[in-house]
Design a protein that fits this description.
The longest helix is centred in the middle third of the chain and has 19 residues. The protein is built from two helices and no strands. The protein has 69 residues and is mainly alpha-helical.
């Protein structure tokens, strides 16, 4: 996808520019950017202490964490 630069917002074609009067569009954009940031940041284990009774149980718990992302 080529990169296009515009000198001002007035130069951006209307089909590319986001509607400034639509708060729902801004919210959708914020959610999609947040999801992208989470995917790009990588995986982090959940915080806290998690006790398991066996090694197999601990490994199963870790697999559930890894499949969440």
């Amino acid at each position: 996808m080529p990169l296009r630069r515009y000198r001002s917002i007035d130069d951006v074609p209307q089909d590319v520019a986001m509607d400034q009067d639509d708060p729902a569009a801004a919210l959708r954009m914020a959610f999609s950017l947040s999801a992208l940031a989470v995917r790009l940041a990588g995986w982090r284990p959940p915080s806290g202490v998690h006790k398991s009774r066996s090694l197999a149980e601990a490994q199963a718990l870790r697999r559930t964490w890894e499949h969440v992302r």
